[in-house]
Design goal:
This protein is α/β, with parallel strands linked by helices and about 450 residues long. Helices cover about 30% and strands about 25% of the residues. It folds into four domains: about 120 residues, Rossmann fold (3-Layer(aba) Sandwich); about 80 residues, Alpha-Beta Plaits (2-Layer Sandwich), CATH 3.30.70; about 120 residues, NAD(P)-binding Rossmann-like Domain (Rossmann fold), CATH 3.40.50.720; about 90 residues, Regulator of K+ conductance, C-terminal domain (Alpha-Beta Plaits, 2-Layer Sandwich). It has 14 helices and 21 strands. The strands form four sheets. Strands 3-2-1-4-5-6 form a six-stranded parallel sheet, with helices on both faces. A five-stranded antiparallel sheet has the order 7-8-11-9-10. α1 packs across α13 and α5 packs across α13. It is globular. The termini are close together. The model has no long low-confidence stretch (mean pLDDT about 90).
Length: about 450
């Protein structure tokens, strides 16, 4: 597949790295000379210097033969024009654009992106994606990460093993005895900055972050087994009233009306606008690092503080302050990769990474064939794919032990009708099954092809 990526920031660079590892023909366009030099030096991709909306630059990047354009520059307008040029002049089949300005997301202007006007096949709004990701963590207390899959039949979750976790120092092969008739599978463990796929003799230790798949109706029982019996939050404080904070407040107001919500926003104009737009929400015009303000917001009674300002340091420090006041759960937004390991040592488990969420969202639309969803697991360690099995794929009705999957690939779950199956080696995949598979970094494309009928590839 030939892909043109417009913008070599963190998101564009990571998508290029993903696709290049899978032997795709990748070209990256950016107007910064040093960024293009980094692409050419570090990736198996071609870097082109120039504006992504310039037809001549697009031609130099190979747009005439491209299967897809992914526009993720810093400017919405450049992304939109790049997709328009790709469609109108070069008939590129698939066009994906990141658009941050929420004005363009207003339903009143939805017709703007139709094929007759500004034809973009997939629009990614990082702010909305992050707000929804935070909301998912809020809806399943006790988790550091949570994703619903297979039409809400199963969850993929991350949890921290704390002092009260009864499962620590227990070989994983004994979990089936401890959780009989329970649909659950451990996918990966993150320990002291290192990630691995555990075997049956491995044990979970205090401080580990454990990722697992579980059937929806059994999730609360499994979380209880990990020592997580937290109640859903009734009092929530949001630090940061920008686009993400406002989107989150609106989602909470629409879906969780029982939650008492306060927002701390330091910009006076933004705070005033929030108080006008959001009913039943208390808005405090102040810094989230002000102890007196946190006390005024009744931080001692809040179960959750969510820090989503545009400053990582403020998000981390306000979360630490909340912990000092006894706030049971904090969810800071962190952009910088360098803070990834630091947040773990500080006990800030449910960290939200906009870059990881945006990359994961875009990759869902890059995958072809019967792939219904893709989720990035732990900073590119692996991809978790949800795939529909068609009648004409070669792996059908073959025992899993006999299928030549790429190394370290895990068949995590099979959803067959109303049943959620954690497959064993002698189980097989049937037509119309939904299959959840974890593929290590760089091997998802091979798994994808195994589930493609010939017609799906074109």
């Amino acid at each position: 597949m030939r892909v043109i990526i417009c913008g070599a920031g963190e998101v564009g660079f990571n998508i290029a790295a993903y696709l290049a590892r899978e032997s795709n023909d990748v070209t990256v366009i950016d107007h910064k000379r040093d960024v293009i030099a980094k692409v050419n030096m570090e990736l198996d991709a071609n870097g082109v210097l120039g504006s992504a909306s310039n037809p001549e630059i697009l031609v130099a990047a190979g747009i005439r033969d491209a299967d897809m354009i992914v526009a993720v520059t810093e400017h919405d307008e450049t992304n939109m024009v790049a997709c328009q040029v790709a469609h109108s002049l070069f008939s590129v089949p698939k066009k994906i654009a990141r658009i941050r300005n929420q004005v363009f997301r207003d339903p009143a202007w939805a017709n703007l992106f139709s094929r007759d006007h500004l034809p973009i096949d997939v629009i990614i709004s990082p702010e909305q994606e992050v707000a929804h990701a935070v909301m998912m963590r809020l809806s399943v207390p006790g988790t550091t990460d949570v994703v619903r899959m297979a039409e809400n039949r199963i969850y993929m979750c991350g949890v921290l093993c704390e002092q009260n976790c009864p499962l620590v120092n227990t070989p994983l092969k004994q979990l089936k005895k401890l959780f009989p008739d329970t649909a659950m599978k451990i996918l990966a463990i993150s320990r002291a900055g290192k990630i691995f796929v555990p075997g049956g003799d491995d044990q979970m230790l205090i401080g580990d972050e454990v990722f697992f798949i579980a059937a929806t109706e059994q999730l609360s029982h499994i979380l209880s087994g990990f020592g997580h019996e937290e109640q859903k939050a009734r009092h929530v404080i949001i630090v940061g009233g920008g686009t993400i904070g406002k989107n989150l407040a609106e989602i909470i107001g629409q879906t969780q009306k029982e939650i008492s919500l306060k927002i701390i926003e330091k910009d006076p104009e933004c705070a005033t606008k929030l108080s006008e737009d959001l009913e039943d929400v208390i808005v405090l015009n102040a810094s989230g690092l002000d102890r007196k303000v946190l006390e005024e917001a009744n931080i001692k009674e809040a179960e959750t503080l969510i820090a989503v300002t545009d400053d990582d340091e403020t998000n981390i420090l306000s979360s630490l302050l909340a912990r000092q006041y006894g706030c049971a759960r904090v969810i800071p937004l962190v952009n910088k990769e360098s803070y990834g390991t630091l947040t773990g040592t500080l006990g800030l488990g449910a960290v939200v990474s906009p870059k990881a969420i945006t990359v994961s969202t875009i990759m869902r639309h890059v995958r072809r064939g019967r792939v219904k969803a893709v989720y990035n697991l732990i900073d590119n360690f692996a991809e978790v794919l949800e795939i529909e099995a068609s009648e004409s794929i070669p792996v059908l009705n073959t025992p899993i032990r006999d299928i030549k999957f790429p190394k370290d690939t895990l068949v995590c779950a099979i959803i067959r009708g109303e049943d959620v199956i954690i497959p064993q080696a002698d189980d097989s995949i049937r037509a119309e099954d939904r299959v959840v598979i974890m593929a290590p970094e760089g091997r998802a494309a091979k798994v994808e092809k195994m589930f493609c009928a010939p017609v799906d590839l074109f």
